[in-house]
Amino acid sequence: CPLLENEFGLIVLLTNIVMEVDDQEIGDACISALAEIATALEAGCDEYETILQCLVHSFLCHDDIKFRTMAVLILEDYAKKEKNRPFMIECHGLLESVTQVALQSNGEERLNCLQILYQLILCETYHPIIASNQSTLDLLTVGTSFLLEEGRNIVMDCITVLSLSPGSKDIVAKHEELMMTVLSLSRNDQKLKNVFKELVSEM
Fold first, then answer.
1. pTM given for the model
2. Which of 65, 90, 131, 175 is the most buried (most CB within 10 A)?
3. Beta-carbon contacts of residue 23 (< 8 Å; ≥ 6 apart)
4. For the residues of 21-35, what is the DSSP string, one character each?
């Protein structure tokens, strides 16, 4: 990880400038610098957890879509790499923030957040943690009615993976609203019918 070896605190400094300075030109320059730094980082780098915290707590929750978009796209890229996923799941507030953006947004921003969640769900060791996250299960409950078919399909895949996993299916089975959603959809979907039967066996 060659970047930032002699730049301790640079990520935090740039983030603070973006959040506190009103000058758009300076803000945009700092955002570009942060995005460039982020692309050079991955799990194992000293500053990886710092960039995650800044993305989640400063940019992902921001009202300005420009900030959210940067954070979402970087996190989506991170989530594609298996070794990054445990650090992302353990990052305080990340799951909650990603699911909230997905719930409150639409279109590409929502799809990107759902892709992040699905990639993280592929990390089987962390299924109990993910399934125990109330925001995640709430998103999956309402996500089956999203207008975009691609979004609904990602939600269905997330539900299926968590429902068939030994580490999380008992937790999913205790979420009444999600169970009723799966039951309703299973009437016309054999795959979900099998998922529901698996969940019932845990009750």
1. 0.88
2. 131
3. none
4. ---HHHHHHHHHHHH
